[in-house]
Structures are given as C-alpha cells and as structure tokens.
C-alpha cells in the first residue's frame, strides 16, 4: 500500500519516513495522480498551514481521488474533526503524530475504519450516547467474547484509550490491541467507534462487504 503525504513543503518529515519508509510527498492535491503509481494507498493531508476556510475543499478534492484521506492538523479540534470527516476524510490526527501512531492509523483505515485522537473519540462516544435513544441491550453477540475481551469492550464503550485500558486491566497495550482485533472479528465491527456504539446499543451502518 502506498502512502502519499500532501504537504506545502513538498518533502517528508522524518517521523513520516520512519513510519512508512517508501512514502512519497507532493505539494498539492492536484498532484496526487502524478505522484502515485499503485492501485491502493492512503493520502495523508497536512493542513497545518492551510487557512481554515480552504480545508474542507482540500479534503473533498483529495477524497475525490478515491483513496482514504487522513487529515493531519497542528491543533486538532472536535468541531473541525467532525466537519472534515463529514467532507470525506477517514482519519484525523496531529501533524506531529509519532511513527507508531501513524502505522496504527494506517491499519485502521486500511481495514475500512476511521480514526481520530482518543480524547475526541471519547467526546464523540459521549455525544452519541446522549443524543441517540437506546433500548434494552441486546446481548447474544457478546456471548462470543471471553471475559477479558468483554472487559476490554466495556472500557472502549466508555471511550478509554488503549493505554487507559491497559492500566485499568493491568495488561500491556500490545495485549489490548490483540483483544481488540479478536473483538472486531467476533462482533463484525471495523473499528473502536463502531464497537463503542454497538456496546451502547446504538445502530451503526457499515459499507464493508
């Protein structure tokens, strides 16, 4: 899978190269077609120096290419996150995100999910549980989970990050990720947002075949 970074400087930051050694860079969204050669990839859109009024249009233009778009902002904010996700982005993170986090985002996006910083995820989940009326919980699918997987799923439902889950359950973050992979497969959800909504009995709609 290719990784193309659209950034005004036209060159890769060191952390981007560490995350994806074969990544490429381009100055403008209009150059995406010329800068890519494979059938599949992710467009990483650096909006740190882009005027707020132009960001939605840039995301829409990038998304029109057909590859998933991850937006990288200098000061990630809740309202902007939801706005740009609504414009076609599938990820939203800090422009200085660490290489390990970039790889985690890429994995989520590659599998059809969407990603945002843990603190914004918590607010999103809290908002969803407030504005969407819930019925009595439906349990059958949860019977497939082990007791520890259920504990992890319940933590996610409350908006906890992997680090917070690891601390609460006295396990490593690697173990949390392994549990989440198993949970996603068993419950048929593609990311932690859908898992949280499902745990709170809020309907989700997937485009995954």
From TrEMBL:
Return the protein name.
Response regulator transcription factor
Per UniProt, the keywords (alphabetical) are:
DNA-binding
Q: Which GO terms describe its molecular function?
A: DNA binding
- Gene3D superfamilies from the UniProt entry: 3.40.50.2300
Pfam families attached here? GerE
For this protein, the record's InterPro entries field holds: Sig_transdc_resp-reg_C-effctor, Tscrpt_reg_LuxR_C, WalR-like
A GO biological-process term: regulation of DNA-templated transcription
Keyword set includes Transmembrane: no
